[in-house]
Amino acid sequence: MPSLGDLIAPRRLGESFRWLLASSWTSNIGDGIALSAAPLLIASLTSSPLLVAAGAMMQFLPWLLFGLFAGSVADHRDRRRLVMIANGSRAVVVLALVLFLATGHVTVGVVLVTAFLYGTAEVFADTAGSTLLPMLVRPGDLGIGNARLQAGYLVGNQLAGPPLGAFLFAIGSFWPFLVQILCVSLAVVLISRIASTAVPPKQAAAEGTDGATPARDGGTPHPIREGLQWLRGNAPVRTLVLIILVFNVTWAAPWSILVLYATEHLQMGAVGFGILTTASALGGLAGTASFGWLERHVSFATLMRVCLSLEVLMHLAFALTTVPAVAFAIMFGFGAYAFVWGTISTTVRQQLVPMQLQGRIASVNMVGIFAGLVIGQLLGGLIAQAWGLTAPWWFAFGGSALTLAVFWRWISLITAATPSSSDVDGSGDQSTNEP
Q1: How far is Cα 199 from Cα 354, in angstroms, rounded to an integer?
Q2: Distance between CA 188 and CA 182 in Å, rounded?
Q3: Which 3 state secondary structure label does DSSP give 424?
Q4: For the chain, how many helices (H) and strands (E)?
Q5: Hey, how many other C-beta atoms are within 10 angstroms of the C-beta on 182?
Q6: Structure confidence at residue 4 (pLDDT)
Q7: Which pLDDT score, from 0 to 100, does residue 152 have?
Q8: E strand or H helix that includes residue 81
Q9: pLDDT at 416 over 80
Q10: How confident is the model at residue 207 (pLDDT cuts 50, 70, 90)?
């Protein structure tokens, strides 16, 4: 009978993976606390919707400014150490905010600057952190490893962290941020137990056949340009990034007005809106818990098509329904397939990208995600303003359906180049194939 620890982090994934998982889960709890505490803090200082929205934008903006650079840094430094430095910087930034709060000198400007600096450090931490798993586990175990990391995000960032942050804020405005510092600091200690994850300096030359751009005339290509040229020349990964970009535009359009859709169109009230978002997180837990079984019994190509098809139908269902109970069911289903999709897309990308380019391609993917979110949020607001609260759902339905039709046949080409899911046998144990 396997222990609880073996069920959560199978022994075959190794001790380093367990340290990575513990660090990620701890950090996600801290981020989840800030997810509710930061907006509450800004709202306590100002009633301006623009300034409240700016708080969220200050954490999006660094991805657009520094995302590609962070990917280049991650590919040329010890990635574990980079995560430690970035998370340590996040703790220092939040500590400065705590000092402002404790002395009564905090202003909206201080909070916005803190959000920007924190978001900048987060860019480097998340980019480098996303490259660690492929260095620690075999290709056939990337799926289950990503599923476990996703579960930590759901529990810490979406379920446990936000209510804890709101509770701590009610006690005192600095308490949630103090606890966040402790969580992020502990995450640094936990990840320090992983062995060095520096990319060998000669690996790029050795892996040139994997698609890395060769230097011209004996020179060294610019690191960011090298990553972009590799992406341009690799059709499966390029297509995957484009799919994620477009689907984030269509997804973000209705999500930007979800609170108004829930409270005004569905008449659910503030509590109902909170429960609606919780339903998504619960669905995500169900999806990540079932991922191991799905990976063993269903091909990645089929799973990707099913997930994207469900996305199209979810938008249509939200556009049509006026019943809160139906909305809860839709949101639970959304969480289930969305986190299965997220696990698959991350796993496929990690399997297809050469180790020396993991950081740069991951950063391009993240820049695309946040660019899609910004574009989608803007479109959603404009569409809802002109045509009503259900109009963004119709836009999302039509846009996602068209995108799926265009890329349908490409999905098989994306997954064809990945290691076969048969690398993991029916019992869930890794085969003897070496990574």
Answers
A1: 11
A2: 10
A3: strand
A4: 20, 0
A5: 14
A6: 66
A7: 86
A8: helix 79-103
A9: yes
A10: very low
Residue 392 to residues 337, 376, 383, 396, Cα–Cα distance (Å): 21, 9, 6, 6
pTM: 0.76
Query: How far is the C-alpha of 321 from the C-alpha of 253, rounded, in Å?
Result: 18
> pLDDT-derived band of residue 213, with 50, 70 and 90 as boundaries?
very low
Q: Give the best-scoring range by mean pLDDT among 1-5, 102-106, 204-208.
A: 102-106
Dihedral (CA of 147, 166, 93, 88) sign: negative
**Cα 253 to Cα 422: distance, rounded to the nearest angstrom:** 38
Residue found under tokens 């099913």: 306
- Binned at pLDDT 50, 70 and 90, residue 76 comes out as confident
Q: How far is 339 from 350, CA to CA, in rounded Å?
A: 16
The C-alpha atoms of residue 14 and residue 6 are separated, in whole angstroms, by: 11
Sign of CA dihedral 181, 184, 189, 190: positive
Q: CA nearest 395: which of 290, 335, 316?
A: 316
By the 8 A CB rule, do 137 and 145 touch? yes
Buried b (16+ CB within 10 A) or exposed e, 381-409: eebbeeeebbbbbbbbbebbbebbeebee
What separation, in Å, do the N-terminal and C-terminal C-alpha atoms of the chain show?
A: 28
- Classify 430 as helix, strand or coil: strand
Q: What angle do CA 189, 8, 309 make, to 5 degrees?
A: 110
AA letter at 171: I
The amino acid sitting at 222 is: H
Q: How many CB atoms lie within 10 A of CB 205?
A: 12
* Per-position DSSP letters for 327-387, written without gaps between them: HHHHHHHHHHHHHHHHHHHHHHHHHHS-GGGHHHHHHHHHHHHHHHHHHHHHHHHHHHHHH
Average of per-residue pLDDT across 165-183: 90
